[in-house]
């Protein structure tokens, strides 16, 4: 069975600092991996996805993530945090098999301080 | 495309009352998912449909919860009778079969049962 672990339920950075949100997955087959962002009082929005093409994936708002099979990781990064990046971020893995089912991590809340 | 549309955005009801949440998926999407989000439990998958047929309802917490999808453009999640512990944000999401696309989420319904 596939699963996702997000290390750190809360991450706090200063504006302009590097953002690093960690995600490790477990999958017996090549996974599809996703990062979603949830701003306050909104639904989840797709940030970026890995679907077995390039291992470095670029998403919206300057975020990117690198798929590392040897480390079973898909960490999300942004070189310089902005106040508007404050949100909750969810990593997800697509379950193999006949049905399209995403398994979500517990989420990481990112706070950005001036 | 208007995206996934959920109604109402907010619902406040008294314990014991019936509550119906509504969802209109993106046209052409053949998967529909209902999630519940709480601070304590995070994102929980309640049920999902493929081509209007319920595939997995193992996440539905109790018999008080029921979901239907009478056609490709409409789904409901009903709670009868409602209880205070049902207070949460309920999200609907839809997707295409090909798991490469991920999900598109609605803005959610914030349910408060008093």
Looking at this protein, list some descriptive labels.
heterodimer, A: 114 residues, mainly beta, 6-stranded mixed β-sheet, 56% strand, globular, B: 114 residues, 7-stranded mixed β-sheet, 4-stranded antiparallel β-sheet
What does the model show?
The complex is a heterodimer of chains A (114) and B (114). Chain A contains no helices and 11 strands. Chain A is mostly beta strands and 114 residues long. In chain A, the strands form 2 sheets. In chain A, strands 2, 4, 5, 9, 10 and 11 form a 6-stranded mixed sheet that branches. In chain A, strands 1-3-8-7-6 form a 5-stranded antiparallel sheet, with no helix packed on it. Chain A is globular. Chain B has 114 residues and is mainly beta. In chain B, 0% of the residues lie in helices and 54% in strands. Chain B has no helices and 11 strands. In chain B, strands 2, 4, 5, 6, 9, 10 and 11 form a 7-stranded mixed sheet that branches. The relative contact order of chain B is 0.33. The mean pLDDT of chain B is 93. Chains A and B meet through strand 5, strand 9 and strand 10 of A and strand 5, strand 9 and strand 10 of B.
